[in-house]
Amino acid sequence: xxxxxxxxxxxxxxxxxxxxxxxxxxxxxxxxGDFVGLIGHTGSGKSTLAQHFNGLLKPTGGRVxxxxxxxxxxxxxxxxxxEKVGLVFQYPEHQLxxxxxxxxxxxxxxxxxLAKELIEKRVRKALEMVHLPYEDYCNASPFALSGGEKRRxxxxxxxxxxxxxxxxxxxxxxxxxxxxxxxxxxxxxxxxAGLTVILISHSMDDVAQLTKRLIVMHQGRIVFDDDTRHxxxxxxRLQELGLDIPTVTKLVLALRSKGWKLREDIFTVEEAKExxxxxxxxxxxxx
Length: 287
Known about the structure:
Elements: E1 3-12, E2 20-30, E3 35-40, H1 46-50, E4 61-66, E5 69-70, H2 78-84, E6 85-88, H3 101-110, H4 116-129, H5 134-137, H6 147-159, E7 165-169, H7 177-192, E8 196-200, H8 204-210, E9 213-218, E10 221-227, H9 228-232, H10 235-240, H11 247-257, H12 269-286
Parallel strand pairs: 3-8, 3-9, 6-7, 7-8
Antiparallel strand pairs: 1-2, 1-4, 4-5, 9-10
Helix pairs in contact: 3-4, 3-6, 4-6, 6-7
């Protein structure tokens, strides 16, 4: 069953001098199995939108459903909903507070009232999912880990809740190239393992490589909601909205302007390599 938003509006500090409308008439469905990118300029409403998916924010107008539960209902089971829809905030390592990795990951699971054996089983599984061996990390201090390892521990603490949907807000932000690659591979594997992933990012390269569907926000409204490849063909409109396009796409467009016969819908290094080699082979045949 999907996450469904119907005519959702959200206003910060309503009826005050600081009132600010963040979302306007949002109709949206996130289906199980989706890998969705959520992009937009700073202040576009993307993070506000994502926090409606698990009830951290409730709309000032409209309705939100997760499966058969209406988040906006008075008796909504928010605890169950937040187990099902996990959210990893930007720079989640800043929110680490326990003495050991085990305690950090087990913190949320303990609130489910599970037996000690089941808690340990979930912690083990979560660490395996982020490629941190249990025996090596369970007793380690999370504060002694590298930036990428801290990020993975934070993700594991959400995975231990066994969510169906995983929302990641700028998961690669601030990491070195190696850390970025590791987290990207982890996210890809989590989706392939069955998780529905919603990736909030300012990096067009990241969403181009990972996501299948792309939602573009601007001033609290959805401007595009389509296949990632199709959305990036609207590069002129994206730039009008203050957004970039993938680095590889810039290269391809530059080569096309020089007369190279290349497709314009190329967004990854692998695609560009194949298309450029193809063009070179065609040119060599004509010589």
